[in-house]
Write a structure and sequence with these properties.
Blueprint (H helix, E strand, L loop, with lengths): L6 E4 L8 H10 L4 E6 L13 H14 L2 E7 L11 H17 L4 E5 L11 H21 L3 E5 L10 H13 L5 E5 H6 L4 H8 L3 E6 L1 E3 L2 E4 L8 H10 L5 E4 L16 H25 L5
Parallel strand pairs: 1-2, 1-10, 2-3, 3-4, 4-5, 5-6, 6-7, 7-10
Antiparallel strand pairs: 8-9
């Protein structure tokens, strides 16, 4: 793995700040790359009503920051839903893809299914619907000349563990669907799955990596306050030749009433300190992973 400078930071880490202020804080941390949060209930940095004016505003603010965008972390609704407004979903997806292309990001990231572990119909049918919806989304992404990635394992969602994630990947393989996988080390750990074994198994599927600490059952710990061995994780990624993004994504809250409440100055200082400490701990783990073992 090349260098600590390859670490980036998601704007979700500063979910309690307006986008322009979040970008200022991230740039001050010394990173050059971000993920842009566009997740209702988690991060309001991209307006849900994404009209032309909103796309222009977000694009202008990112350009002014000088930061490079790796991906847009978005959501267009529950992909395993049995009833939904297909036209509205397609329009929202198109606008997210337009934004992704406009800011020069590589990919739009979508989640794999609704919040909650239980199927809406049954497991196989839900997986089939997610596969079908992602197939449509991938075709639209190609039209915009960007990639589509999916966070196929997310502890809070239908695809909560490796079994369902692998079943979705098998569906991709069955029709040659080219969709990259976002590996969130915290969600894998929270699900009780073996992180290094998951990295080894997914190998070239992995297009992007989110970094946050966790323990079994809890995916939201600060770096160094959970059970993830980041040195070992970086070594495992190095073993598969991974060369993609490594992004600190450390929200304070998610899918709660105050998840996107604006922070006061004291809270802002706390967010800054936590993010700085987390990045430093990740850099130390990355350097340690590059040392020869006896």
């Amino acid at each position: 793995m090349e260098a600590p400078k390859s670490l980036g930071c998601s704007t979700i880490t500063f979910q309690h700040l307006p986008l322009a202020e979040a970008l200022t804080e991230i740039a001050a941390l010394g990173v050059e790359e971000i993920d842009l949060g566009a997740l209702p209930g988690v991060c309001d940095h991209v307006p849900y009503t994404l009209d032309d004016a909103a796309i222009e505003t977000v694009t202008t603010e990112i350009a002014a920051s000088g930061l490079r965008v790796r991906s847009v972390n978005g959501d267009v609704g529950d992909l395993n839903a049995t009833q939904f407004d297909g036209a509205a979903r397609a329009e929202h997806l198109d606008r997210l893809l337009r934004l992704t292309a406009a800011i020069g990001a590589e990919a739009l990231v979508l989640p794999a299914g609704a919040l909650g572990h239980e199927p809406i119909d049954d497991e196989e049918a839900d997986l089939d619907r997610i596969h079908r919806e992602l197939s449509h989304a991938a075709a639209m992404a190609r039209d915009h000349r960007v990639q589509l990635w999916v966070e196929s394992l997310h502890f809070l969602r239908f695809g909560w563990g490796r079994g369902r994630a692998d079943a979705l990947h098998e569906r991709f393989d069955s029709d040659g669907l080219d969709i990259g996988i976002v590996l969130d080390v915290a969600h894998v750990t929270a699900a009780g799955d073996d992180l290094n074994a998951t990295i080894a198994a997914w190998r070239d599927r992995i297009s992007h990596v989110h970094l946050r600490d966790a323990v079994v059952g809890d995916f939201s710990r600060r770096i160094g306050e959970g059970s993830v061995d980041f040195g070992s994780t970086f070594s495992a990624l190095d073993d598969i030749g991974y060369s993609g993004g490594l992004i600190l994504e450390q929200p304070s809250r998610a899918y709660e009433q105050d998840a996107t409440a604006v922070a006061d100055s004291k809270r802002r200082e706390e967010l800054r300190a936590v993010a700085s400490q987390s990045l430093n701990r990740l850099r130390e783990a990355m350097v340690a992973s590059m040392q020869p073992t006896n």
